[in-house]
Amino acid sequence: MDVLVDGVAQALSLLFSGDQETWAITLLTLRVSLGATLIAALVGAPIGMAIALGSFPGRRLLLAAANTGMGLPPVVVGLVVTVLLWRSGPLGSLGLLYTPTAMVVAQAVIATPVVVALVAAAVQQVDREFLVQMQGLGATRLRALLALAAEARLPLLAAAMAAFGAVVSEVGAAQMVGGNIAGQTRVLTTAAVLATSRGEFGLAIAFGLVLLLLAFAVNVVVTLAGQR
Amino acid sequence: MTSRIGCRELRVSARGRELLRVPELDVAAGEVLAVLGPNGAGKSTLLRALGHLGHLHRTGDVLLDGRVAGPRELRAAIAAVLQRPILRRGTVAGNAAAGLRLRGVGRAEARRRSAPWLDALGIGHLAERRASTLSGGEAQRVAIARALAVAPRVLLLDEPFAGLDATSRADLLADLRTVLDGLDTATVLVTHDRHEAMALAGRTALLVAGRIRQLGPTARVLDQPVDLDCARLVGFTNVLPPAVTGRPRLAAARPEHCVVGGDGDGLRIPGTVRRVVPLGAATRVDVDTEAGTLACRSVDANGLGPGAPVTVSVPEAALRPIPTNGAFVAT
Hints:
The complex is a heterodimer of chains A (228) and B (331). Chain A has 228 residues and is mainly α.
């Protein structure tokens, strides 16, 4: 019990004393995970919309794949991306392994199926005739799609939140493709794992708290924005 | 008559099957045309093909003011009201302004221009209510106000009254009639209800299996069907073969004109009661006769029960000859 109380006390002092290393790790975590979420949204949202609105061969298969992909084990993604970026691998010449960029790529792969599946579900919630009705009021195809996105903005934001939540809390891929290099690729989750393994529970709990606060803050902002 | 909107050789197909084929149709400015047809006849398809709405595999031309029009011209000219009122989040006033907003009009200007239409449709007092709290009838009024607010040159109505209860429907029909009377808009109303056609439309087209079978002034189309399908569509559901009428051709009559136990002149057909359905003011009696089962009306259901022998009388004036070569089909 003492360990836990001491740990929380130490965590709070670390956070409020403005410990430089803790803050650097937090900022890198935000950069990597928000970047990955952004890429996943740019790639996944159009696919999700196409699945929801289109009628093309393989549509159901794609949706089933996306739904399966929501449970993609980060370790598997980390493994595949590591192999691809390995010095002698197909993309080894890019020299990206153990860089934040590699972590963004791996996390984007994890987040994209989440975005695809949830965007498809969000758009399917809107009336099937919505686009026809918007066109029937004089909207161009693009304006009608924007109106549709505005109509579904809450579930769409929920899709983004879920994607961010999935990547900010994962440790497997970040560890494998990032390598947990201090000052370069160390993020909150990998730092927490390392600190725990060293018995530095205060530090680990501090990282855990920051992770929780981060997730909470992002969700509050997004929820408020959606209900405005 | 100068045509506001029309089509030439308009065809729509899906998966190699032809859903609709309309060689020629014209609707003038200020006119209301009703397209009456059973479910699945292609009514909505025709409406959407005319407005270039949605994804249809279509060939042929849509004409605006007599000239071939593309999606851009049609988008600018048309406003549509669908069967279900699809409103957006937000207030009634915001929804009424949505059509103008989609056409690039500023927020304040759009509100200003759409407000009078809420009043015209009797929902001005709901302007600040959230759209999600409206009843079906109120929501449909908002959808109609939203369409009229863009001052459309062509108004497309896709069964806008279908989901409403009888009272809301009658009120909305009356209000819409008043509004449309003062406009220069060409209106196409798709419906399966002949009473709506009667209430709103100067001309009516009967659409059966993707083809327009009959087109003319509403009163005439509803009273003088040209074939069996059209007869059934406009309510002449009792079909009487020559053997029963003694006439050279097939004839049809409305159930409300076939009276059980009536004593007037005209046709008298013996039969037995199959079932009795009380409908409030009158009673519907289905009678098995040599012409098949006839739906009839009776003012007095006393003593009528299944199996009772009765006589159905049909005034000569209520019979419509059906000019078709088709074989008699028992109903």
